[in-house]
Amino acid sequence: MSTGCRKNELLALEWHRVDFERSHFRLECEHTKNGKRRLVPLNSGALSALRDQRDWVARHCAGSEWVFASSSGRRVSNLQKGFVAACARAGIEDFRIHDLRHTFASWLVMEGVSLYVVKDLLGHSSITVTERYAHLSPDHGRVAVQKLSPL
């Protein structure tokens, strides 16, 4: 949830594309919906989760190139079963994996992050798609007019 990535973007992620030092990972054009390469910045929570995942892979399928690998070392191709089970344990109903992406975008906009920044983080090819979150911007009209000096 801390990256805003699409499920398939994450499932295609390989360890050599993760840069722990610079706190980002690289998505190649063949793994993004819009066909454009992008860098995904990582916050401390995402870095911690990736370190935990790296430790799991080292213990259960050492040498796998995939960030999300099965115990056999192959790329995980379907998260549905595990995701549904996790939601059930948490008492969450009617929630899809893609809803994590919407939550990421919604929370950023509610924190006042520019729609253009959110667009880039989500990898949208057009601001039009990102504008669905505009109504969540806190006091966007009031803040805008306050930038003008009084007449």
Structure description:
By secondary structure, this protein is mostly helical. The protein folds into two domains: 1-77, hpI Integrase, Chain A, CATH 1.10.443; 79-140, hpI Integrase, Chain A, CATH 1.10.443. Helix content is 44%, strand content 7%. It is built from seven helices and three strands. It has helices spanning 7-11, 44-60, 80-90, 97-110, 115-122, 127-130, 140-146, and strands at residues 18-19, 24-27, 38-41. The chain has a three-stranded antiparallel β-sheet, with no helix packed on it. Strand 1 and strand 2 (24-27) form a beta hairpin. The longest helix has 17 residues, at 44-60. It starts with 6 loop residues before the first helix and ends in a 5-residue tail after the last helix. The model has no long low-confidence stretch (mean pLDDT 92).
Secondary structure layout:
Layout: H1 7-11, E1 18-19, E2 24-27, E3 38-41, H2 44-60, H3 80-90, H4 97-110, H5 115-122, H6 127-130, H7 140-146
Antiparallel strand pairs: 1-2, 2-3
Side by side, the strands of the main sheet go 1-2-3
Measured between the Cα atoms of the first and last residue, the distance is 45 Å
Helix content: 40-55%
Net shape: globular
The CATH H-level superfamily of the largest domain is Intergrase catalytic core
Q: How many domains make up the coordinates?
A: 2
What string, H for helix and E for strand, traces the elements in order? HEEEHHHHHH
State the total count of DSSP E strands: 3
> What's the Cα radius of gyration?
18 Å
Secondary-structure-based class equals mainly alpha
The CATH topology of the largest domain: hpI Integrase, Chain A
Largest sheet: 3 strands, antiparallel
Strand content: 5-15%
Helix count, per DSSP?
Answer: 7
CATH C-level category of the largest domain: Mainly Alpha
> Average pLDDT value?
92
Low-confidence stretches: none
